[in-house]
Design brief:
Strand content: 25-35%
Number of strands: 20
Number of helices: 7
Distance between the termini: 22 Å
Radius of gyration: 20 Å
Number of domains: 3
Helix content: 10-25%
Mean pLDDT: 90
Low-confidence stretches: none
Order of helices and strands: EHEEEEHEEEEEHHEEHEEEEHEEEEH
CATH topology of the largest domain: OB fold (Dihydrolipoamide Acetyltransferase, E2P)
Shape: globular
CATH architecture of the largest domain: Beta Barrel
């Protein structure tokens, strides 16, 4: 397994507070790795992704007694703020009644995803240079029985959405704190905790029973493997050093409509799929229209802080 730290560094800014503090000022502050930590920094260290307080473990000694390297962790009082760098994956949220679950949907705290849009909608797509304006493609799905009741085996019939990953990426800063019930799931889970960075994957994933999940990663390169719009575009994603490469295969014409092209290096792509082998590396292919999208650049720091 990868030994990379989940939170590679923390921002240190004396007197800064999550509520009301300037995020631009925090981003410009000193970046402190766990090895650079000094005891007087306690209480003034913040996550580079969600901006909440973090603490170093252990707080004083350089190393654990078992020689494990020190690391940063989020404080439990900020559990309600979604963060892709949070190490612990909760089981998910359950609801005491149909009325409570319906209220969560009505207030924008819960989304039931019946499925991701399978084919390209009949609308004219004219993405901008960075494809940061996401067309709204959501449609109402059927009432769906979902097992999110507090009591074991209890399901509620609730309104669902047929949506796209692009719709999830749009307004990501708000969506990351929302609970999503994805197709085939057993729990409603906060979006930030459903997401897996491709850099966390190793070949061990092939030994696990595969089901579609939400992944994201930074594009290294992208090219059309043929000469036509229906040819496959090969998009390489940053991955763990133990893997030769990770490739997203998707029709070039659809990639063009989604803003994925030869100039997409450095952008973050999100997709919902099953990881497979790709030659001597890993990859994903046969994604439906709604199962892949570029993340608007303004949210890069929330997913992959530099």
């Amino acid at each position: 397994m990868s030994t990379k730290r989940k939170i590679a560094y923390a921002h240190h800014l004396l007197g800064w507070e999550y509520d009301g503090g300037s995020r631009e000022a925090l981003k410009a502050s000193r970046q402190v790795t766990p090895d650079e930590y000094e005891e007087e920094m306690a209480g003034n260290l913040f996550c580079p992704s969600c901006y909440t307080n973090v603490e170093r473990t252990p707080k004083e000694k350089d190393l654990f007694t078992n020689r494990r390297a020190p690391f940063y962790r989020h404080l439990s009082r900020w559990q309600h703020v979604g963060c892709v760098l949070r190490a612990k994956k909760p089981e998910g949220k359950r609801y005491d009644s149909y009325e409570e679950a319906k209220r969560a949907i009505d207030h924008g705290h819960l989304t039931i995803v019946k499925e991701f849009l399978q084919s390209k909608p009949e609308i004219e797509l004219t993405p901008g240079a960075e494809y940061d304006e996401t067309p709204v493609e959501d449609v109402s799905g059927p009432l769906s029985w979902v097992p999110i009741g507090r009591h074991q085996g209890e399901s509620f019939q609730l309104p669902s959405k047929i949506t796209t990953v692009a719709g999830i990426c749009c307004n990501f800063e708000v969506n990351k704190d929302k609970y999503f019930f994805l197709p085939g799931a057993q729990h409603a889970v906060k979006l930030a905790e459903l997401l897996t960075n491709v850099t966390e994957l190793t070949f061990d994933i092939l030994n696990i029973e595969q089901s579609p999940k939400l992944y994201f990663g930074r594009i290294k390169s992208s090219w059309n493997a043929g000469q036509h719009s229906n040819s496959t575009r090969m998009t390489r994603i940053e991955c763990d050093s133990t893997i030769r490469d990770f490739t997203v295969k998707y029709p070039d014409g659809d990639c063009r409509d989604k803003g994925i092209n030869d100039d997409s290096t450095g952008r973050i792509v999100m997709f919902y799929g099953v990881i497979t082998t790709n030659g001597s590396g890993l990859g994903v292919e046969r994604l439906a229209w709604g199962e892949i999208a570029l993340v608007p650049g303004k949210y890069n720091d929330l997913l992959m802080p530099d």
